[in-house]
Design goal:
- The chain is of the alpha/beta class.
- The protein folds into 2 domains: 193 residues, Periplasmic binding protein-like II (D-Maltodextrin-Binding Protein, domain 2, 3-Layer(aba) Sandwich); 93 residues, D-Maltodextrin-Binding Protein, domain 2 (3-Layer(aba) Sandwich), CATH 3.40.190.
- Helices cover 48% and strands 16% of the residues.
- It has 14 helices and 11 strands.
- The strands form 3 sheets. It has a 5-stranded mixed beta sheet, sandwiched between helices.
- The longest helix is centred in the last third of the chain and has 20 residues.
- The N terminus is likely disordered.
């Protein structure tokens, strides 16, 4: 009887120890992650099956979901339908302020992926010329934030223009049809409009484009820290491949985005930098500046502590040991 009691006692101890252990990648049945044409590194990860190879021995299924814009990636994260999502830094900040439980953990690009675009024969020459005009924009994305900041810098408000809310590709199409007079563009659709239709980027400000960041749901990061670290390891492998294979990367983007190769090359070789990876002070300064500008423009409520929100959003724990 004593031996049986001891056996049960130690069995109970073992079960308790297992229950206390954090969930690991081995206990992860499915990992859900997005890919996006505005995140070229994600396309490499997906195309080369790098996550599938990394988690194969664990029996973890990789489920890919395409994000049409930062707003969609952030909606998916908020709904719990993906674990990792690609967005602009400022878009992630607004989502965080609105209660989206995410952390920005990695930089996949430093892009000039947005500008204000008009048709080749338009008389619009500056942001001031947008007064009273219809502008296509995707709410909750870097182009939306870029447009709001541009209007404020020109002494205009969102009430001075008519926002036509469309996803990025539909915004480009609306400009092409003449349904709107301007569009807050996003690559590769923006580069496509330039090359194929002679669209003009009448307002550019590269430093107002916030970083491309990879976000993770807070509960996933807490439950599966090892898996998060392994995802970033795979992202690094893809980012370094992308840096050393620019021509192949352009071909891959052209295929996945279904765009001509010259359009992909314009996006990648002229307006996308892939040399950064860590979340740090540069990202903090850029996202904070965007947040404060949006607060001044009335997009973020005046009682929100933007600095605290940025600090809560950015988590350098997983990327701090990465090397370029």
């Amino acid at each position: 009887m004593l031996k049986l009691t001891r056996r049960l006692f130690f069995a109970a101890l073992s079960l308790g120890a297992l229950a206390a252990m954090p969930a690991s990648a081995a206990e992860l049945d499915e990992l859900r992650i997005d890919w996006a044409t505005y995140n070229p590194v994600s396309i490499v990860v997906k195309d080369q099956g790098l996550l599938e190879k990394e988690f194969e021995k664990d029996g973890t299924t990789i489920r890919w979901v395409q994000s049409a814009g930062s707003n969609k990636a952030l909606e998916f994260l908020n709904a719990g339908s993906i674990d990792f999502g690609s967005s602009a830094g400022a878009a992630a900040l607004i989502a965080k302020i609105n209660g989206n439980p995410i952390k920005s953990i990695y930089v996949y690009s430093r892009p000039e992926w947005t500008a204000l675009v008009t048709s080749k024969d338009s008389d619009i020459k500056s942001v001031a010329d947008l007064k009273g005009k219809a502008v296509a924009v995707t709410r909750g994305t870097d182009p939306h934030i870029f447009l709001v900041r541009a209007l404020a810098d020109a002494g205009l408000s969102t009430n001075d223009v008519r926002f036509v809310l469309l996803q990025h590709a539909d915004g480009r199409a609306a400009l092409s049809r003449g349904d709107v007079q301007a569009w807050a563009g996003l690559d590769p659709m923006m580069a496509s409009a330039e090359l194929e239709e002679g669209a003009r980027l009448f307002y550019r400000k590269p430093e107002a484009n916030t970083w491309g960041v990879l976000n993770v749901r807070e509960d996933f990061a807490k439950a599966h820290p090892e898996a998060v670290a392994r995802v970033l390891k795979v992202y690094e492998q893809a980012r370094k491949w992308a840096q050393s294979h620019p021509d192949e990367l352009a071909q891959l983007l052209a295929k996945e985005a279904r765009i001509p190769l010259p359009v992909a090359e314009k996006q990648l070789k002229e307006r996308t930098e892939l040399t950064h990876n860590k979340i740090g002070s540069e990202q903090r300064e850029s996202i904070l500046a965007a947040g404060l500008a949006l607060q001044q423009a009335g997009v973020i409520a005046s009682d929100v502590n933007v600095t605290a929100a940025v600090d809560s959003l950015l988590d350098d724990h997983f990327s701090r040991d990465l090397t370029n």
